[in-house]
Write a structure and sequence with these properties.
Layout: E1 2-8, H1 29-42, E2 53-61, H2 69-82, E3 84-95, H3 102-109, E4 115-121, H4 125-131, H5 137-149, E5 155-161, H6 168-180, E6 185-190, H7 198-204, H8 213-229, E7 233-236, E8 239-241, H9 248-254, E9 259-262, E10 267-269, E11 273-277, H10 281-289, E12 295-299, H11 302-314, E13 320-321, H12 322-329, H13 331-346, E14 350-353, E15 356-359, H14 361-364, H15 367-374
Parallel strand pairs: 1-2, 1-9, 2-3, 3-4, 4-5, 5-6
Antiparallel strand pairs: 6-8, 7-8, 10-11, 11-12, 13-15, 14-15
Length: 377
């Protein structure tokens, strides 16, 4: 099976830390949606031809919850014209709390959307203002309750840690609030300073102190201990879930399942190539209307595929399987990786049981470094 990702490039306002592609103007909303419909038809062979079964659909962005339920339904219907959507497909929408009023939630009940990813980030007013989030603390609480009251149980909520305003006590309170709501899936991300953002500019100009690695590491370790004790499985570096509540769409990314990205800046992968659309709404619309796909593409070498497997597998609870490496890439690479893992095993950063290599709690703090050290040139 495969997945479909929709990048909805609209936001009410720019969060100070965000460097994803988006626009705060809805001026070309209708033209862009029409182009996304056309792109689905133009890309219908990327995943191997018509009839390919779609297991997951994910609306990301940007802020997909800015769209009307009818807009989202229309895109799902267009997918169904060109692909076979599995009867039990996971259909996720990323949503900001300020969009989830009673009318919007009830309208979404009439669509195939069955999973909400709610961008909470914090339950503290001053933190939300510092991030320049569009919602306030009360809306963060009310949105979760409203979605749950509407009958949705498949919900994930995002939190951010490792920024100056977030004391350890506030971090514990944020975690406790999601546990009190009985949210079955929690995603948490360390605040990063990207150069082309308002936060990046503030740090460069000395108006904002840099993020502190020690704070981020300590709060991540506390998150791991707290959620594990509460019965969550830390199944990917940034993701925790109660049993049977893994995000199917994102899990498929880490397992190398093909997916098609629709919309400006959306990425696609079909096992042999990767491609990514232009991050410009106007250029995207013009190219699609002219019958072309405004993307760059790369053919993946065997080494590219192996390095991607190393990077994604190590991030997960399933780990890097040396038998799988031998099966897919040959015994030489299996032996190379086995030897490469030994220093990390001896330092207690990687656990090697049988043929499966997984990161320890200590290793999860160094995930990107460990993966890069194992990459094959």
């Amino acid at each position: 099976m495969a997945g479909i990702y929709f990048h909805i490039p609209f936001c009410k306002q720019a969060c100070h830390y965000c460097d994803f592609h988006f626009s705060t103007s809805l001026k070309y909303r209708d033209e862009l949606l029409a182009a996304m419909h056309r792109e689905i038809a133009l890309q219908n062979t990327y995943l191997g031809g018509t009839g390919q079964q779609i297991e997951t659909i994910y609306f990301g962005g940007g802020t997909p919850s800015l769209l009307a339920a009818a807009d989202l339904n229309g895109l799902i219907d267009e997918v169904g014209k060109h692909f076979a959507i599995h009867h039990d497909a996971e259909v996720t929408i990323e949503a900001n709390p300020d969009d989830l009023d009673h009318e919007k939630v009830q309208a979404l009940r009439a669509t195939p959307i069955n999973r909400f990813s709610i961008g909470i980030q914090s339950f503290f007013e001053e933190d939300l203002r510092w991030m320049n989030r569009a919602h306030d603390a009360n809306e963060a609480h009310e949105a979760i309750k409203r979605v749950q009251d509407a009958g949705y149980r498949n919900i994930t909520a995002d939190l951010i840690y490792g920024y100056p305003l977030l004391s350890d006590a506030k971090w514990q309170a944020n975690i406790n609030q999601l546990l009190a709501f009985d949210i079955p899936h929690i995603s948490a991300y360390s605040m990063t300073v990207e150069p082309q953002t308002a936060l990046g500019a503030s740090v460069r100009k000395g108006k904002q102190i840099p993020m502190q690695e020690g704070q981020s590491a300590a709060q991540f370790e506390h998150l791991m201990a707290t959620l594990t004790a509460a019965g969550f499985i830390h199944y990917e570096i940034s993701n925790f879930a109660r049993p049977e509540n893994y995000a199917r769409h994102n899990s498929n990314y880490w397992k190398g399942v093909p997916y098609l990205g629709i919309g400006p800046s959306a990425h696609s992968f079909n096992g042999t190539t990767r491609q990514w659309n232009v991050s410009n709404n106007a250029r995207y619309i013009r190219a699609i209307n002219a019958g072309g796909i405004p993307c760059e593409k790369e053919e993946l070498t065997e080494q590219d595929k192996l390095n991607e497997y190393i990077m994604t597998a190590l991030r997960t609870v399933w780990g890097l399987d040396l038998d799988e490496v031998e099966k897919r890439f040959g015994s030489h690479y299996r032996e190379t990786l086995y030897l490469g893992l030994q220093p990390f095993v001896s330092r207690g950063e990687v656990l090697l049981i049988g043929q499966a290599a997984t990161l320890t709690g200590k290793g999860k703090l160094l995930a990107d470094h460990i993966a890069s050290e194992l990459f094959v040139d």
